[in-house]
Design a protein that fits this description.
Blueprint lengths: L27 E7 L3 E12 L2 E7 L6 E10 L6 E9 L5 H7 L4 E5 L8 E8 L5 E4 L2 E4 L4 E3 L12 E8 L3 E11 L2 E11 L5 E12 L5 E10 L16 E4 L8 E6 L2 E12 L3 E14 L1 E6 L7 E9 L13 E8 L5 E9 L7 E23 L3 E12 L5 E8 L6 E7 L2 E5 L2 E8 L3 E12 L1
Parallel strand pairs: 1-15, 13-22, 16-19, 20-26
Antiparallel strand pairs: 1-2, 2-12, 3-11, 4-12, 5-11, 6-7, 6-10, 7-8, 8-9, 13-14, 14-19, 15-18, 17-18, 20-21, 21-24, 22-23, 24-25, 25-30, 26-29, 27-30, 28-29
Length: about 450
């Protein structure tokens, strides 16, 4: 049987020393991941460089690297190596692309279902909606069989490839540093918050979830995570790939060390780890036990007519077993049942939170506490307006409930509250808050009048 061989065709210039592509594992890998679909890859590789003008290829790179961010340096003799050109080739082999290259060229189609293996040789005219092949005076529309191509077109590669054209004045082994930015890799913090039955204490476990869809595996990498909003000049490319979940065993392993870095926070894993392509990895980040918490009911009748929001609040302080910068992420809140099993009671998102700040987690709406807000009076003049409101809170629980009632005056610059019952406090320039105590199986009313002028 005739064998067909795929051949890479390169135009060779006699003045250039071409070197084989590099596949060897990097001697040193450092991976810095930002929580904005962005990663910084730094590798150190030992490479044999020929003298004079030479070419160099590297195929073990991220598929979504930004070639404009690429940095190449000889750590052995930086003054002896000059970069003349650098290229990133990513036109990878696929069936559709191969067929497109063979339009108006001869192909073979072998029908493997027939015993004699009937073969059609002809010119490929089209691949849209099926193949169209011209053999002699006949046209074959979507012929059945295996398409055989004589060779791989020279413009195709099997993996994303970096290519350099160098001038090297010191032939021999060099330690080469390569770094670049890539999209397709991201991280986030996932919080597990277990509140006791009395709603007074909670235990917190924080996991870092690392999602790698960059098209490359990072073997034994030094891992750093950056929390903060880094400004990017261009929008990121969106990609979807299949992924798997790996739960990293961290028993006895050094965790993350935190430090300030520029105006962000950096977390460095105290050991090396492998981050595989198409993998979601979780690494334990931090934790705290016996954190003082409080359950708070909040009614905002202007936003949600009858629902009373339930919040869990706590302070990120050292004396509360915390006191560390917390990266943004999702907090899932649980509470034990009578048999000790944890029940999911709600979740909320938090932003990057410095130490010593208060956190308020919205976990759901109260089932047995309701609110109703209505306007009872309205009058106005040429340059003023006055409105009165009454808020009725009902408690169907067997114990007293305390509800924070918040009212906002966003549409007015000048306002004053009159005849308020109970007393209120001013939260900010346009928001006030009442604290209403509702007896068991009872109700409480909050009323006030506000005057606006202009």
């Amino acid at each position: 049987m005739k064998k067909f061989v795929f051949i890479f065709l390169f135009s060779v210039l006699s003045t250039i020393n071409y070197q084989l592509p590099t596949y060897l594992q990097a001697d040193e890998v450092a991976l810095t991941v930002y929580n904005q679909n962005l990663g910084l890859v730094r590798e150190v590789r030992e490479m044999e460089l020929k003298g004079g003008v030479t070419s160099l290829e590297l195929r073990d790179v991220a598929a979504y690297l930004d070639p404009t961010s690429l940095h190449f340096k000889s750590l052995t003799a930086s003054e002896s190596v000059t970069i003349l050109e650098q290229n990133f080739e990513y036109d990878l082999v696929s069936r559709e692309k191969l067929l497109e290259k063979y339009i108006d060229r001869e192909v073979e189609i072998r029908n493997v279902k027939e015993e004699k293996g009937a073969v059609i040789k002809g010119i490929l005219l089209s691949k849209s909606g099926g193949l169209v092949v011209k053999s002699g005076d006949r046209l074959y529309l979507n012929p059945e069989g295996m398409v055989i191509l004589p060779e791989l077109p020279k413009d195709f590669i099997t993996k994303p490839t970096l290519k350099w054209l160098l001038r090297n004045d010191k032939p021999g082994k060099h330690d080469i540093e390569i770094s670049y930015l890539t999209s397709g890799i991201d991280w986030k913090a996932d919080y597990v918050f277990a509140v006791n039955k009395e709603n007074t204490k909670a235990d917190l476990n924080v996991w870092v979830t690392l999602d790698n869809k960059s098209g490359k595996t990072y073997e034994e990498a030094k891992l750093k995570l950056v929390a903060g909003d880094v400004h990017r000049a261009e929008p990121e490319r969106k990609m979807m790939r299949q992924r798997t979940m790996v739960l990293e065993d961290t028993v006895g392993a050094p965790g993350f060390q935190e430090k300030d870095f520029f105006e962000y926070h950096m977390y460095t894993l105290g050991r090396k780890t492998t981050v595989k392509d198409n993998e979601m990895k979780q690494v334990e980040f931090a934790g705290g036990a016996g954190i003082p918490v409080s359950k708070v009911f909040v009614y905002e009748g202007q936003k949600n007519a009858k629902k009373v929001l339930v919040k869990i609040e706590f302070e990120n302080k050292k004396e509360n077993s915390l006191g560390i910068p917390l990266p943004k992420g999702r907090v899932r809140v649980y509470q034990p049942d009578d048999d000790g099993s944890l029940i999911f009671i709600g979740e909320d998102e938090i932003d990057h939170t410095p130490k010593d700040e208060k956190l308020s987690l919205a976990v759901g709406n109260a089932f047995d506490i309701t609110g109703e807000r209505k306007q009872t009076q309205s009058q106005s003049g040429n340059d003023w307006r006055q409105e009165s409101y009454e808020i009725t809170l009902k408690n169907h629980k067997k114990e007293e409930a305390e509800v924070k009632v918040r009212e906002s005056f966003w549409n007015w610059n000048n306002w004053k509250v009159l005849n308020a019952s109970p007393l209120f406090r001013k939260i900010d320039s346009r928001t006030i808050e009442f604290v209403a105590k509702i007896p068991p199986s009872g109700e409480t009313k909050v009323s006030y009048t506000v005057k606006y002028w202009w």
